[in-house]
Fold this protein.
Amino acid sequence: MAYDRSLVDRLLRESREIVLQELQELFEGNRPTGYGPLYDLLADYPFREGKSLRPAILIASARAAGGRTEQARLSAAALELYHNAFLVHDDVEDDSDFRRGEVTMLRLHGAAVAVNVGDATNVLAMQLLLRNAEVIGLRRALLILCEVERMARESVEGQAVELDWIRQDIFDLNDQDYVRMAYKKTCWYTVIAPLRIGVLCGCPAGVRFPMERDLVPLIELGHLAGIAFQICDDLLNLEAEPSVYGKEAAGDLWEGKRTLMLLHFLREADTASRKRALAILQTPRRKKEPTDVQWLLDAMIERGSIAHGRRMADRFVERAIALDEYSMTFYEENEARHFLREMLWYVVERAK
Amino acid sequence: MAYDRSLVDRLLRESREIVLQELQELFEGNRPTGYGPLYDLLADYPFREGKSLRPAILIASARAAGGRTEQARLSAAALELYHNAFLVHDDVEDDSDFRRGEVTMLRLHGAAVAVNVGDATNVLAMQLLLRNAEVIGLRRALLILCEVERMARESVEGQAVELDWIRQDIFDLNDQDYVRMAYKKTCWYTVIAPLRIGVLCGCPAGVRFPMERDLVPLIELGHLAGIAFQICDDLLNLEAEPSVYGKEAAGDLWEGKRTLMLLHFLREADTASRKRALAILQTPRRKKEPTDVQWLLDAMIERGSIAHGRRMADRFVERAIALDEYSMTFYEENEARHFLREMLWYVVERAK
């Protein structure tokens, strides 16, 4: 099937508009009885440049399951907020300088404010999900909250794994270690939860209403697609110019982030190169030399680590596409369903 | 009415046992499919020495409303977890050294881990509240989640107000400014939410099931009692020995925390004393001199600021007691109801 970029772009844009409008109303609705300055901070990250990938997947999944966009609006906006809360805290945890092309909340306002803004963002996301009861009923609202609990739990566990690697200075990791961590940290909240919550929002009431077993294939589909997405996101980080990507160039190398590509290089490099790489990675970011980081990037390219990442991403996407063909019995054949398929291509295409 | 310390102590102890057992099961239940080391960290704060005030109020409120302890277990344990999540993040935000007589999560494991552990604690609290549906039904479970959303929102707003005072170096604040901040930051999650959620858990189904308007008096009761509690907690911090209280002696002065007593002193002191006090407060904690902090404490005592705090706390408790006599129509006269009344005395008595 040909990759239809215009459909992907259009539905991403439409979903983003829906979400931003919902969030605008949410902030304005809470402001009169709340503490104004907090709501200014809350609006910062969500209104920065972004793809709104997660809400788009959620809304498309709802429509593919036979539902209307209206049924998925609140959940889509909530998921975008959870994502933003995660980013605000993640930037504190990684001590990051930039996010979406601008200075992080951490650098703008300090760790104390950033931690609190992240917490507040989570609270408002929950408010949206509670309002779901009025739109799609009590039972669905609660099922969706259960999905969000699982998603958030997987994310903090994935984050805990990665933080332990950092604190214990662990670099001796294989592809499987990486995939296990990213499954928890990325796949749940980027793909699995959006797909599953979408079905819960959109599926018609009655006998077809999905049971837990119906939603199981979406875990595997989201797993495969999510890993491909994360690898490609890390490839973009390594390769793109700062102006294109919105972060520092090769920011992950400056941060010492364990990517599939970096871990491949550390396994495959000769002893001297590996030693030099570890010394660079263990140097605090502000003390790293640009020439060292550039050497590491070049060495990774030469060693085939970038190619290894691209190959793995392709393989995961191929498996996702194969699974997608046979297991998604609750989806109809419509535009939204088409978008979900196209997204699988989009993930790898954008990193090429 | 005579203050019955033994009843207060017994029900506090019983509630704490219930909560710790529930939390133990929660952590063990999530561990097998989760990331073990995270659950060790999650258990740290909740199992430190503590009063478990909030679960005790919640369980007593449920029983006073005619319910059984069983109906309130999950919510009580959840509230204790939300409290602990708040403390873990609060310690990051305040850059604190000690909590409950031990070194903070921040100092033990760094800000990155502490932020993530706080987030994980919130997730598990939500898991408990979702399980409420099996015990007390879908509708109550959702109403309780709405209470928790409100509670958490008020807390982050109160926190935002206080963080702004710190970042903008604002000390020129009156009693009303203080009370408004503490209402949001403390009252909701220490008293108002435990009381209201207790009623929602315990109230018999049927015509007597509380409407929103029935629960309104609990906002004011919790407001009055919560302010008294916070003032007394701050009095204890100023006056108690470190071994008694579990934090540094006069830790709030070292941190420059805006307490009712400190703000009173800054308003009432002569120009020279005020200037010296501000210089001390604006010095980073690690550069403060013990003799300076001692001078400030002595000056506050001499200026009547401690007495002012005690007087205000008494006044708030008296108003709470008066309100409590007339407005709590959904409570029965039983042991738990007696405990709730005694708690009002307990709050001020423990600071004497």
